[in-house]
Amino acid sequence: MQRRRYGRELESVKLWGRVPWAYLAMTAMYRVLDRKSSSIEPALRSLIQTRVSQINQCAFCIDLNSDIGLGRGVSKEKLGALPQFEVSAQFSEYEKAALAYAETITYSDRRVDDRIVSRLRQHFDDQAIIELAALIAYQNMSSKFNAALGVPAQGFCTLPAQESRRASVADENKQAATMKER
């Protein structure tokens, strides 16, 4: 199936294939989260997955999720601006709220507080917030697995993935410096 869809087998799946039941469960979960009837629009799902992957420094996930995002109508410029979404005019308040939630959940030193929840509730109902949390948790698992095993990018979306990764690393360094100052 992967050879038909991607022209080759994905490195990540070769690794997951060593634990077949876990891979099947993970695949089933992704299909539920990425279904057509999801209350989260496809382009936003891709932005969230790409941003979580950037934070977790997963080259494979950044590459693949950026490519999927392009297919869902996300521009290369928007993908490149993703690490600075809060200050970029390219993102709607709806997207910013979801991406801020994704960052809060992904960074282990942050907690979801009333401000984050209030911001989310301006744009999402309870069902959508639950789906956002599940998608973010799924992408954290996937990208941390791949990053831990050094799965490289496979060239699906070279330019935006490289730009996003450089921006993500710069963002990480800036945040680390800010934490040191505290």
Task: Write a short abstract of this structure.
With 182 residues, this protein is an all-alpha fold. The chain has helices spanning 2-6, 11-16, 20-33, 42-55, 59-71, 76-81, 93-106, 114-121, 126-148, 158-181.
Give a description of the structure.
The structure is a single chain. 70% of the residues lie in helices and 0% in strands. The protein has helices at residues 2-6, 11-16, 20-33, 42-55, 59-71, 76-81, 93-106, 114-121, 126-148, 158-181. The radius of gyration is 16 Å and the shape is globular. The chain starts with a helix and ends with a helix. The chain has 182 residues and is mainly alpha-helical. α3 packs antiparallel against α9. It has one domain (2-153): Up-down Bundle (AhpD-like). The relative contact order is 0.17. The longest helix is centred in the C-terminal third of the chain and has 24 residues, at 158-181.
Radius of gyration: 16 Å
In the predicted model, the low-confidence regions spanning at least 5 consecutive residues are: 159-170, 176-182
CATH homolog superfamily = AhpD-like
Strand percentage lies at under 5%
Query: Total number of β-strand segments?
Result: 0
Q: How do the SSEs run, as a string of H and E?
A: HHHHHHHHHH
Query: What is the makeup of the main sheet?
Result: none
The CATH class label is Mainly Alpha
Q: Which fold name fills CATH's third level, the topology?
A: AhpD-like
Structural class: mainly alpha
Averaged pLDDT: 88
Please count the helical segments: 10
Helix content: 55-70%
Distance between the termini: 50 Å
| Global outline | globular
CATH architecture heading: Up-down Bundle
